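Homework help board

Subject: predicted structure for assignment chain

Our instructor gave us this sequence and asked us to write out the predicted structure in token form, then describe one feature. I got the tokens but I'm not sure how to describe them. Can anyone check?
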Amino acid sequence: MWRRCRRLAMKMSCFTPPGEPSSVRHGFSTQCTPVHYGTRSRSSSLGATSSAAAARAISTAKGPHVQDSEEDEDEEEEEEEQEDSYGKQFEIGPSLLQDAPPAMELEEVSFQFLEEITDGFSEERRLGEGAFGVVYKGVTKNGGVVAVKKLKYPDVDPEYMQFKNEFDHLKKLRHPNIVQILGYCYETQKKPFIMDDRTRVTTEEIYAALCLEYLDNGSLQKHLSDKFCELDWHTRFKIIKGTCEGLKYIHDKLEEPIYHLDIKPANILLDKDMVPKIADFGWSRIIGKEQICKAKDRYGTPGYQPPEHIETGEISRKFDIFSLGIVIIMIVSGPEGYAIYLDGMSTDEFNKDEFINQVRKDWRNRLQATYRDDFSIEAYCHQVEACTQIAVNCVEKDKQKRPDILKITEMLNEIEIDVGQNSSAYPEQGKLFTMHDLVHDLAISLFDNQILDQSKQGNNSGSSCQYALLTDCSKALEVCLTPRARLIRLSFLDNSRSKLSDAAFTASSMRVADISESSVQTLPDYSTGKWKQLRYLNAPGIPDRMVPESITTLTKLIYLNLQGSAIIALPESIGEMECLTHLDLSACERLQQLPDSFRNLEKLVHLNFSNCYHVKGVPDVLKGLTNLQYLNLSQCSLGAFNCRLRGLQDVIGNLTRLRYLNVSNSLHDIPVDGINSILRSICTFSNLQHLVLSANFNIFCIPETVGKLTKLHTLDLRFCSNLRRLPASISEIDSLKFLDVTDCDMLDKSKLPRFSKCSVFLPHFFVHAGDGKPSSNLVELKDENPPKLEISGLENVKSVEEAQMIKLVEKTTTRELQLEWTKDAKRSVEDIDVLREFVPASTLEVFTLHGYNSVSFPTWVIRIAINLPLIRTIELNDLPWCRTLPPLGQLQNLLSLFIIQMGSIRKIDEDLCGGARAFPKLHWLGINRMENLEEWNTTYSHSEDGSGVLVFPKNMEMYIVDCPKLKLKPRPPAGFSDWVIKGSDNVLSSWGEEEHCQVTELFVRNSKVPLHQWRVLYHLPALSILRILECRDLTCSSLDILRGHPTLKILTVEDSESIAGLLDGLETLTSLEKLEIISCTGAKALPEGITQLTNLRCLKIKRCPELVQWCKSEENSMKLAHIKKIKLVNDEECDEELESDEEHEDTCKFTETTILLQASICSS
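My token output:
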């Protein structure tokens, strides 16, 4: 017989076989008392199972229980007596979806209720499977959603222990990055069973489940299908940081730290805002003061376990840190990147820095397609690099080298601040104010019980409440407030997706309603009259597509914020809201049409339409809004076929009270005359303080009347690429503090107006000679210390002393420095003498030298590796007389090097390397417009074995552009993977029998030699991508040149003649997956061997009329039947797709950002 016992202290039933102490089972004590069991049992907490659990465990663990004694019959009678009392409890559960209170008095729910809300635990409701249970989606009758984790094998000890373990831990964890437990189920049901001998026996089944908060976006695992899935970097960083914050909480913020021991993407769940929450605590353990222990069994998931645990069973904090590192690697680089990392770690030659650089490179390519702001791109790339470095450190084999979670979160906080404060990629944020503790205490004492804050324990009632912060927007106010309350301001902090109850706003005295921190789906009905005193409504991000018409009954409303909502239209009668002064519709991307009555909002002072890409009728409604002081129309016509702001020139002149105007990236389709009219009108706005005209390429000049804007503080002209001049009158605006002309490529900086303060133009500073004066204006930089400094017009420096006075070496804040002399301009001082005094601070990271005219460099440049150890980017541009290069290869942190237009250099030799182990982190190398460069000697002297060949880091990109005489001797550098060759035919053709290069991507542009002379192709066995652009002769006398590329997967040919020879050799490219032929008029037909390319999945033919017709013919279309995606385009307006399969595979897509980057670098 099995003995039944109850551990009274824990209120938990436990069972021990004869001869064994009860502590063997479940780790409980040996205190036991007789217990009984019933037909259906319940408990007041998970640890409080009834006597029925005893019999259930006996039945399920040892087989059916046979009733063969009077004692059993008596026991059954007692069970029947208990059944009624348990039945009364069986129906509870609908309140499960409400947040558990801080005390975590969790609710017990019946298994029947769980079956109802999960549709009988159907497959359609199945969400996933955890370590010991299957998770289902539960939906209650009122629409609430919960996740139900059902124990798979409750009668099996390890499964049950994990269930109990997760419950014990989750019930005491309260953190925004830990999944929240809402309730539980633990009960038995007796079922009759007839044995083979017709004996009647009774069996019992155990039902155990945890009820957890439902997280809309599921697990992180499903979002990591590839490294460039739908998650942008900002979201990925949020997931990384949130996960680390959750881990920090369980490691360092609890009295008894908890080690999770199964951190992996499947156990990181994401809510509707992509906030991560750590889940599945079935493996977790409280280790105690020892902090390190040894386990007989192995914990966690293979692939996420640290080596010390695999080898010895050791468990410590560093177990979770190792798993965290693997997760971060997958977040930043995707499963493919993780696989590459694992493969590399298995070899002794793996270079972690190269892996980090590759991740950064991939993200840079993607970010450059999204952001125009270089600072934002650099800031995000810095985050990418930092996160990847953290991950690499976390997976160190030696656990002592892994950082602790406090250090990790500290590093993440630092880089989050960097981007958050400086990146223009972030939306505008509200201002945050800090109140001194003493002032706060005084305010609390004065308000006494007028404040109700349900988010804080112990503050759940206010007898005379006027200000309330509630946590449940589905309840009526009467539930929360006393009759004496006269509510003025109401805010919600509600993480459920509840509908906003009309009864939540029954206080007729209410003036302010803020639901910005809630997750409501729709706005309530405003026609009840209870809202009539409302002045302020903050409701951003509402998912509902329609704003209720009744909102227009809020005739006293002053402030309305619907930012980021999914609305497609506004109420037709919105013009009846006659008191409205502040309206924010920014980022309402689906908003399409404004009602005619909008123009009746004559009291509007603040109007924000930024990022409303599709909204029409804006100029029409602006006619009557003459009281506007703030108007933001930035990106109002982005991606639109017809300019949404056409006609703005006819109405903007009426907005004379404007203080802030933003039309960034919105005026593209307005004709130049219209642009000039708009600018002339703007220059009459005497109150204007901030004017943003950035990213409008059809602005050519600013009117002279801009000088009349006497209150102007900020003028943003960034990326106005066609802006030619600024009027002299702009320097007369005494109030002007910031004038940004970054990337105004056509603007002559030497003719910029002179301001009394040089800080106006910073980071740009042009040196003026100062006619009749003994010195230039360079001295004005003496007290400036900007993060970025571009000094041009250095030929106007009149003495070495001027250069000494600005003390560049002390400007430690300056991380980017550009020094520029005007080409062919007369000098008062030799360039080398000026440069000698311009020693930057050792903190410099980016250095550009342009137009330098001396033959050699000063000492600090020759010793640059010592003086500037942190340099990441160097550009040497238009140095016509320099004959040698400094030893840049010894810069240990150098990522980018561009050598451009140095006409006196005929040979690059080992001086560039400066010795062995050169360029350890180099990511980009560009050699551009070096017309006289004849040889690049890629060997360097080595003290031990004589000489070696320059070896670049793996995955480096090299650009050789317009170097017609250049030959690489004795062979190309090793290591790099991406190669762009433009107008440099000797690099293509002058190859001997050198060793092969492991280049995987080659882009050839503007070659005049025929294809069969491209000897470079014989030495690239790993080539997978080949792009050919503007090459005259692609005749191929021998197909051998193509047969040597069994790995080629993508071939693109554009704007090239005589392509027939290349096409004839296609059948040898058996691994080809994608073929693009663009603007090649000589292409008439595809070869018969096209049918042999069984891996070809994507064919794109554009602006090749005869070839397009060939493909469309019925006979030839059969030859292409095996290709899944075919795109035939005759011109820009004709686009026909023929698909033999509806499936659109991601492998058919290719990233355009690489081409864009290459084109920008190759452009002359």
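Reply (TA_rk): Your tokens look well-formed. For the description, you could write something like this. The longest strand covers residues 181-194. That's the kind of observation they're looking for.
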